[in-house]
Amino acid sequence: MTDRAEAVRLLESRAAPSAALADQAGAIADTCHAMAVRFHQGGKLIVFGTGGPSTDAQHVAVEFVHPVIVGKRALPAISLTTDIATVTGTAERDGISEIFAHQIRYLAAPADMALGISSDGNSPSVLGGLAAARAGGLLTIALTGGDGGQIAASRAAEHVLLAPSPDPRIVKELQVTLYHVLWELVHVFFEQPGVLAPGVVA
Amino acid sequence: MAQPQPGTPAAMEALYPFLYASSSDLPAVLAQVRESTVAKTLEIAQLRQVICEREAERLAACAEAAAARFAAGGRLLAFGNGGSATDAQQLATLFLNPGPATRPLPAYALGSDTSVVTALCNDIGVEVVFARQIAAFGTSDDIAVGLSTSGNSENLVRAFEEASRRGMLTVGLAGYEGGKMAELDSIDYLFVAPSASVHRIQEAQTTIYQVLWELTSGALAWLEGQRA
Hints:
Strand content of chain B: 5-15%
Radius of gyration of chain A: 17 Å
Helix content of chain B: 55-70%
Strand content of chain A: 5-15%
Largest sheet of chain A: 5 strands, parallel
Oligomer: heterodimer
Helix content of chain A: 40-55%
Distance between the termini of chain A: 56 Å
CATH architecture of chain B: 3-Layer(aba) Sandwich
CATH superfamily of chain B: Glucose-6-phosphate isomerase like protein, domain 1
Structural class of chain A: alpha/beta
Number of strands of chain B: 5
Mean pLDDT of chain B: 92
Order of helices and strands of chain B: HHEHEHHEHEEH
Low-confidence stretches of chain A: none
CATH class of chain A: Alpha Beta
CATH topology of chain B: Rossmann fold
């Protein structure tokens, strides 16, 4: 028997973690600025994640390439989750931790940005992708959840944004807000080109 | 007013003021971005609250109906365009690969097969994508879940008509005021995220379908416990 009370309990369980997301406002603003500088320099955004977050990686790519708000410029972004031949081929030959690292080594340029998404911060493939990105000189960003897992503990990315919930479904919902905000607010910096020179700091 | 001498730095600055904008603007822009972030998190929290008040009862009813279909051997087919295509994939993997604590259930996303999608787009038109796939796969035990932010996508409207004709349980997620999807008789359960922001709509829809998944899993476990 499924009743209204259970639906209400589940819906209301989103409220506290959602409110806690506002604590990340400073980190989000800094990340948007760093991304805007990279786009301004001609960098592209490379997004990756496994399981549910693989769909988020594709969502981020379409968000930047085909903006929902008319008049916003299209920005270069690709997801590393759609080339199923390379993903499965790499996984079988070199192991799961190589599926994104391999693509980054051969598709990325130093001006690019790597955005890894992991619900618990412990995805070996996302960690591998971020490590390859750092080695290649990319800007590294991670969206994680829970306590941030190994991604937060090992400082695998320069910018780590945390969705504060132990429930991977709630983490997903907060991460959708996080990347929507990243997309929208990167554009704010384009309206102020004086702040896009490399080395401009607050 | 004195004109800058052509070719001098002053003339360059007059022509391209943005190149000379002060880096001291940065703290102000960062503050603006922080405020905007906080405002957006409040906006989505309020939208979820409205949905909780309006839809909790029907979400529970929809979950029971979906559980009955799964218990009868049905599958879930999810579909949407663009960002909603990724939500359809998330919904499918949520059922099919939910993790160790929950029973996997048969579900797939119709947008994932790029060969079928591009073949239909190229040979006929985007409006038959999903409807044609439902005609090929759908049975009266199955569940069709279509996601749209506008509620106006022609290929969703046609997909719901096909699914309804086949006796499938039909579930729609839309935004704004529901668009064309709100006018259809072919959708058994329509959940509208009442917002004018595509982003907030998608965030609220993510909550709606994930709660629906959790309620459906619970309802199915209860149903099977009754039969055991």
